[in-house]
Predict the structure.
Amino acid sequence: MRVLVINGPNLNLLGERNPAHYGTMSLSAIEHRMEERALEYGWKMEFHQTNHEGEIIDLLHGARIDCDAVILNAGAYTHYSYAIRDAIEAIRIPVIEVHLSNIHARDEFRHTSVIAPVCRGSIIGFGAASYILAMEALVEIND
Ligand code: DQA
């Protein structure tokens, strides 16, 4: 199983950015934890972080050729990027939406995810554990 993990805008600042919402773990520490779990499963992981919408779209397009699943935290693009929504819809592999914070318990503009309807499912509000739970979801659904 080859899994692409995409983290969108501002997630490179995890650990220092708003720890009350996002915790104190850095993105590289989260990726390290995922890598450890992936070793247990014999999965090949690929990690990308970008602050650019078009790059997220290009990564999703590429994943349809060389990956079996995507774990995506689209950051604030979650709430308004129809272009990312369309890219997810266009590819056939499962995309799991992930958020560290509970977007439904925060500002009203965060309550809407325009990508949720085209994702295989969403894991929201469990901090860094959301990413590990997304891996568990992939194990269980076995798409
Ligand atoms: C986030 C939630 C978004 O609303 C926010 O813009 C982020 C992070 C999360 O993981 O909780 O950048 O996706």
About this structure: The mean pLDDT is 97. Residues 10, 73, 75-76, 78, 99-101, 103, 110 surround DQA (CB under 6 Å). The domain at 2-141 is CATH 3.40.50.9100 (Rossmann fold). The chain has one domain: 2-141.
